[in-house]
Amino acid sequence: MDCFKSTGTDVSEMRYPGKFQDVQVKGKIEVNIFQGSEYKVEVIAGRHLIKNINTTVTDTLLKIENSTSCNFVRGYKRKIIVNVTMPYVSKIYNYSVSSITMDPGFNQDSLLYVRNENIGDTYINGKFNIVSTSSHGAGDIYLSGSSRTLLIYSNGTNFTFAENFKASDQVFISTYSIGDAHLNLQGVASFDYYIWSKGNIFYSGDPLAINNLGAGKTNGKGTLIKN
User: What would the CATH number be for the domain defined by 1-95?
Assistant: First the structure.
């Protein structure tokens, strides 16, 4: 590809890469995930660039990445958007510098695992059985919806925003982050936490039980603060 050629006008391309239940994103690509009966991927990008947006399936994993090496010339002003439709999502891996957003209509009685490894934010929306998040970088995680169990691990400079998320049975958080976590604990049967670094945990509501599992074990400067 000629690096000095423009990306061209935006075009849309529908792809059917096969069945998958996990999604991995690399590069600067905005991804939206919708729940539907089909397995399909819509790519929206410049007509000179769209062929370099790879959407391939290996085993159960849909890999989304930009294979072009010309971004340093063209810059990053033009957005690349990928809309993913799938019946069920098990794992989301955000290795990108852009956002991944789940549609609020997601409803599944299963585990959703989300891992952030870069500066891209991830927006989790929907109703689940268990949600487990793991953050390792500067990308923040936003949660809206509900589950029975919410498990959070953070390590880096990231923030967790779950004030609009309702867990009924258990909330567990282990934070090594210097960023804060914001939780809704109203009516939660058990809230367990470790604070290993400077990040605070802000919460609203009245959980039935609060357990500081790090008492006498951690020396984090962050604190648990009720709003």
Answer: 2.160.20.120
